[in-house]
Amino acid sequence: MQTYHVPVMTKEVLYYLDCKPGGIFADCTLGGSGHAKAICEKIKPDGLLIGIDQDKDAIENAKNALKLHLPNVRLFKGNFVRLSEFLSELNISKLDGILLDLGLSLHQIESSGRGFSFRREEPLDMRMDTESGTTAEDLVNELDEKSLEKLFKDYGEERWARNIARNIAKARKTARIGTSAHLSEIVCSSIPRKAQSKQKIHPATRVFMALRIVVNRELEKLSLFMDRAAELLNPGGRICILTFHSLEDRIVKQKIREFEKGCICPPGFPVCVCKKTKILQKLNKKALRPCQEEIVLNPMARSTKLRAAEKLQQGHA
Ligand SMILES: C[S@@+](CC[C@H](N)C(=O)[O-])C[C@H]1O[C@@H](n2cnc3c(N)ncnc32)[C@H](O)[C@@H]1O
Q1: Residue 315: pLDDT over 80
Q2: Which residue from 54, 16, 23, 63 is spatially nearest to 40, judged by alpha carbons?
Q3: Does 55 sit in the ligand 1 pocket, CB within 6 Å?
Q4: N or C terminus: fewer CB in 10 A for the chain?
Q5: DSSP state, residue 122
Q6: Contact criterion met (CB below 8 Å) for 164 and 176
Q7: Are residues 255 and 316 in contact, defined by beta-carbon separation less than 8 angstroms?
Q8: What is the mean pLDDT of residues 64-84?
Q9: Domains of the chain: residue spans and CATH
Q10: Is residue 226 lining ligand 1, measured as CB closer than 6 Å?
Q11: Rounded distance between C-alpha atoms, residue 197 and residue 175, angstroms
């Protein structure tokens, strides 16, 4: 059976989350439950892990992967922006730690059959939550050429966005673009061979990433989540976030900075009028990267960045 996922930077995640017996933690991106299992080991015998994923496959997998810990686990299928709603259902108001490990699981890329990989002939779906939302096929076939170009530029930083959008618009006049292989073929034919040979990544990587980000509204959800996450932590509670591309990392970095800043009144003001207080303290100055050995063993780890922060004790503001 194919491995569901290989968790990234597990040692570092456990260190920054500071999981202790009896703690209450939320893993908001369960995936293959690798991190969740490691957290369960640390918080036993009487801790609680709240596991969330918007992909029903991850929840099904967790029931088996976490079977030894199930009395100490509560699973929720849904978007992590609903974390406070899930906590209310459990009558829990605050957490000792929150983990976000963004992006896709190996299962979603390799065996979900949803067109995440440009190397496969699969329906162009790309939804992590297959029960709602627009598919990549809808976007590729229905967005006008200019909007497609903007999407590839804004979310994929794709240099050849204009050519690609033009060729998609041309191709779909003949037949609907319905599979990952068909889209990949159009993208590859839109980038000059010379430019392709200079790239280290597959020519369709950026376009597939851009579509996936938009289909799952990834940046919008991350931003919303980061706005509210600190409220849900106990004083001394930790948040640890693993990102896989610069757009995600930028959001995480900026949000932590905002919560670290506190008062935003102009320096000349005699008294504070904004009433904002410092809520988080970052735990690592620069984003942490996986070590070389981990990247060799698990190439999916190569672009990971870890950022972590701690909620300040009350009265520290
Ligand atoms: C990289 S995997 C997590 C791997 C996991 N840490 C492990 O140890 O196996 C990312 C998971 O997060 C889920 N996910 C991504 N964005 C989400 C969101 N906004 N809400 C809920 N789940 C999300 C995906 O469906 C995927 O299963």
Answers
A1: no
A2: 23
A3: yes
A4: N
A5: -
A6: no
A7: no
A8: 97
A9: 10-105+218-311 (3.40.50.150), 130-215 (1.10.150.170)
A10: no
A11: 29
Measured CA angle at 256 (ends 252, 258), to 5 deg? 120
* CA-closest residue to ligand 1 atom 27: 31
Q: Tens digit of pLDDT for each residue in 217-248?
A: 999 999 999 999 999 999 999 999 999 999 99
Helix (H, G, I), strand (E, B) or coil at 157: coil
Q: Distance between CA atoms of 23 and 51, rounded to whole angstroms?
A: 14
Residues 6+ apart with CB under 8 A from 145: 165, 166, 168, 169
- Indicate the residue type of 128: M
Residue 82 CA, chain-centre distance (Å), reads 15
**Token pair belonging to 1:** 């059976």
User: 55: closest CA among 98, 102, 108, 3?
Assistant: 108
How much distance in Å is there from the Cα of 14 to the middle of ligand 1? Answer: 17
**CA–CA separation, 12 and 24 (whole Å):** 19
The pLDDT tens digits for 100-130 are 999 999 999 999 999 999 999 999 999 999 9
261 Cα to the center of ligand 1, angstroms: 29
Please tell me the distance between residue 99's alpha carbon and the centre of ligand 1 in angstroms: 10
Question: Left if phi > 0, otherwise alpha if psi is -120 to 50, otherwise beta: which for 194?
Answer: alpha
Parallel/antiparallel/unpaired status of strands 95-101 and 73-77? unpaired
In the block, residue with structure tokens 């800043």 = 261
Cα 28 to Cα 34, 35, 93, 222, 313: the distances in Å are 13, 11, 16, 11, 24
Look at the block and give the residue holding tokens 């004083």: 235
Nearest alpha carbon to residue 152 among 130, 128, 175, 168: 168
**In the chain, what is the greatest distance between 2 CA atoms, to the nearest angstrom?**
68
Give the bridge partners for 233, in sequence order. Answer: 95
Q: Cα(96)–Cα(84) distance, rounded to whole angstroms? A: 14
CA–centroid distance, 198 to ligand 1, in Å, is: 32
Cα Rg of the chain, angstroms? 21
